[in-house]
Design a protein that fits this description.
The chain is an alpha/beta fold and 199 residues long. The chain has helices at 2-5, 37-46, 81-94, 114-121, 145-153, 159-165, 189-197; strands at residues 12-15, 31-32, 35-36, 53-56, 70-71, 99-104, 125-129, 132-141, 169-172.
């Protein structure tokens, strides 16, 4: 992994723009085996690129104290994961990258070869596991930002629809060595309990 990582400098943006209503508090600050979800996810993706890792969130929100660069949403009044993807594309383009990888803050079991396999497929590309798409976990050309803006103007919020619209490749990841879904996401306290119980 380390040898391959040296060839990858794609920026990665962790999406944390959701309100965490079902969870009841900011999910990224929840502890899983003594480490916050934010720290787990940022550590996992930082090990896979030489490029910068940033966090899509409000500058004055609950993650304001993070050491990661903050990437705020740009489309005011919009909601949903696509707004975070839109901000990530603009951030990556601004720092001179043609691509950006995105993933949510609530997926603590991300595979160690996530970024390299996305790159091997070419962009745009999204992830899947157990027959289910995880379209917000993907590799995106920053040149698609204008097309995404037009998509958002149609009041479209479906990440699945966006992935289909731009012809994304779908990369399948099997369960990991611990028999966990690598894209298990934590939406509730019961999900967090299940993650804690996973070995």
């Amino acid at each position: 992994m380390q040898a391959r990582m040296q060839d990858i400098s794609t920026p990665i943006c962790i999406l944390a723009g959701g309100a965490s209503r079902r969870f009841g508090s900011p999910k990224g600050l929840a502890l899983l085996n003594g480490e916050t979800l934010l720290d787990k996810v940022s550590r996992a993706v930082s090990a896979q690129t030489q490029g910068p890792v940033a966090l899509n969130t409000a500058p004055d929100g609950p993650y304001a104290g993070t050491s990661l660069p903050i990437v705020p949403d740009l489309a005011e009044g919009q909601v949903g994961a696509l707004i975070g993807l839109h901000a990530a594309m603009h951030w990556a383009a601004k720092i001179g990258s043609s691509f950006v990888v995105t993933c949510p803050i609530d997926t603590p079991f991300l595979p160690q070869d996530l970024v390299s396999r996305l790159h091997d497929s070419g962009a745009p590309a999204i992830c899947a596991s157990n027959g289910r798409w995880h379209p917000i976990i993907g590799l995106w050309p920053t040149a698609l930002a204008a097309e995404l803006e037009d998509f958002l103007k149609m009041e479209a919020r479906s990440v699945h629809a966006w992935a289909q619209r731009c012809g994304s490749a779908v990369i399948d990841f099997s369960v990991d060595e611990a028999r966990r879904d690598p894209f298990f996401n934590i939406n509730s306290q019961s999900d967090l309990d299940a993650a804690k119980a996973a070995k």
